[in-house]
Structures are given as C-alpha cells and as structure tokens.
Design goal:
25% of the residues lie in helices and 23% in strands. By secondary structure, it is of the alpha+beta class. The chain has a single domain, classed as HIT family, subunit A (2-Layer Sandwich), CATH 3.30.428.10. A ten-stranded antiparallel beta sheet has the order 3-4-7-9-8-13-14-12-11-10, sandwiched between helices. A three-stranded mixed beta sheet has the order 1-2-15. A hairpin with a 6-residue loop joins strand 1 and strand 2. It is globular. The chain starts with a strand and ends with a helix.
Length: 331
C-alpha cells in the first residue's frame, strides 16, 4: 500500500510507493566515464583556458594560473550573475525585477581528469572543503550578497556540462523562496517547541534507526523520512550549527570521511548515477541561528518528474527511505 508522508520542515507531502518498490538494479543507468580530456579546460596544464584563478591550493614553488595546484577557484566563464554594476530594483507595473548582480565561481576539485570526489584522498578532499569555506566566507563579506549557494552537478542529466570534477558557488543579492520556506519552517518549530527541528530529526533517526546509512563522531547520514527523490541522502552535523564555515579542523576531517564514504556508496550501489548535492545554509547575518542547522542534501538522478508532480508539487518516490538506506548501508 502506498503511503503519503508529510515532510516536517515546510509541510510538503510526498507519495512513497512500496508495491512494487524500485531497488538499485531497477533504475536506468548512465555512462559517466570521462572521455573529453583532450578538450577539458579544467585539466592541469590548461590553466590558460579558464579565467584567472581567484585562489588555489597549490605547492609553495608554483605560481598562480600555472601547474602545481590541487584545487582552483576561478570565475565562471559563463556566469548566471555578474559582480559588475549596482544592485537596483525596478518594475514593470505589477512585476518586480532587479539587476542580475551576484557572483558565480567554479571550484575545480582536482587536476586529475579521471578522478571524482570519492576517489580523492582524505587530505585532498579536506582541501576542497577548505576552498568551499574560504570562498563562502569571502563572498559573505560583501554586504550586497545575502545568500551563498554552494552546489555540485555530476553527470549530464544533473546539469554537469563539464565532466571534470568541480563544484560551483553562486552569491545572490536576495534569499531564494525555497530557502525562506525552510528557514520559516525551522523558526516556527523552534518557537513552538523551543528546539531545533534538525536536532530533533537526528534524535528521531537514532531512535528509528532504519533510515540511517552511516555515522561518525561528528556527522550522521540518513535517507529522510519524506524524501522528494529515490535514494535522497542527507549529511548533517550532530552538533548544532547554522554556519557551515565555522566547522573545526576535526569536524572538517570527519566531513571529508563522510562525503567520501557516502558518494562512494552511491556510486557503487546505484552504478555511478548522475547526482546533485548542495549545502543548505543560513543566509549571511541570519538573526535566528538557534533554529537552523546546516546540512548537505545529495540527490541521485534516478527518475524524472512528470505531469502530476509538476501540477501538484506532490512528489512520487518509488523507493522507501528505509529500503534506500538499507541498500546503501549494506553494500
């Protein structure tokens, strides 16, 4: 019998199908074997094909925009938003507009065209996380930017136009509606119960156990109770924090271990699917940090939204989160 489940933060309902329930071998497979190395602008030795780097993790004897780097941050050559100009609000009758001010950067995660995040050493993955933190902090210092969105698209069906391992960061002059809804849901829960809803989720997942994939001293990974997508996976710090950039060096090492582990499990169990992941963080200078808890959401691209989902906003998920967690946990 299918189930209707209510997601507790924003109140979104989803349909969980259990008869039949799709398991890893039932989904279509995509080929993500790297094959465009000859023309890849992100490879070592082709630094001249990107805009000049903003910052990089590199050996001491190397020079900017040359070889010898481990992680590079560069402006996006085709940015969604641009830093030049002033932020201005305008309108046409009842319709509101603003100038497209923001920042759009690429974080190239490794000089190796063949490697993906789960292939990196823990030291190299920690360097990637350091670059995430550094870019988020520096962009947040610009008062005109209200929200920093850090995300990764892997595979063509997930929007990955270049196969070389990279992430993106976009600084926005406003807080997106989806983020506002999550913030308000968390704030309302805190007002009513005096506790963070995400911290309560952690306690609930520990109590139920069936949706937990793996955990370490600082982070928990689980398939959420009311997911939007099959095998949707969250990584959340056990200690309450609204600001990703404040993690300690020890927590950063544990997050690197968790990311490597979870992305490796998803690749193995689901035959290297396309996926998106994104950091859910509070806006810059958020005034209710006690109610919000940063986390990472990973969405494997296994199914496609159809008319019912677009027309109602009600997601149909063909695999229960308990079954998804079991497959990832027991691989």
């Amino acid at each position: 019998m299918p189930e209707l489940r209510r997601e507790p933060i924003v109140g979104r309902w989803v349909v969980i199908k259990t008869d039949p329930e799709l398991l890893p071998g039932d989904f279509e497979k995509e080929d993500h074997a790297p094959h465009r190395q000859a023309t890849c602008p992100f490879c070592a030795g082709k630094e001249n094909l990107t805009p000049p780097e903003i910052e990089a993790v590199r050996s001491e004897d190397s020079k900017p925009n040359g070889s010898g780097w481990k992680v590079r941050a560069v402006p996006n050559k085709f940015p969604a938003l641009k830093e030049e100009g002033a932020f201005e609000k305008t309108g046409i009758g009842m319709y509101d507009m603003t100038t497209g001010i923001g920042a759009h950067e690429i974080i190239i995660e490794t000089p190796d065209h063949q490697a993906q995040l789960p292939d990196l050493s823990l030291e190299d993955l920690a360097d990637v996380l350091d670059t995430y933190i550094s870019r988020a902090k520096k962009l947040a210092k610009q008062k005109r930017f209200k929200y920093i969105c850090l995300f990764k698209n892997f595979g063509e069906s997930a929007g990955g136009s270049i196969e070389h391992a990279h992430s993106q960061v976009i600084a926005l002059p406003m807080v997106p509606k989806f983020v506002v809804e999550e913030l308000e849901g968390a704030r309302n829960y805190f007002r009513y119960r005096g506790r963070c809803i995400f911290c309560d989720m952690i306690h609930q997942e520990h109590q139920d156990k069936e949706r937990i994939i793996v955990e370490n001293s600082d982070f928990l990974s689980f398939c959420p109770f009311a997911p939007r997508y099959a095998f949707e996976t969250w990584i959340i710090p056990k200690k309450h924090a609204s600001d990703f950039t404040t993690i300690s060096s020890g927590e950063k090492k544990e997050l690197a271990k968790m990311l490597k582990d979870i992305l490796g499990r998803i690749r193995k169990v689901l035959s290297n699917p396309a996926y998106n992941f994104f950091l859910h963080v509070a806006p810059n200078d958020y005034d209710s940090p006690e109610s919000y808890h940063w986390h990472i959401e990973i969405i494997p691209k296994l199914t496609h939204s159809v008319g019912f989902e677009w027309g109602t906003g009600l997601y149909i998920v063909p695999t229960s989160p308990g079954a998804a967690a079991r497959c990832l946990r027991d691989n």
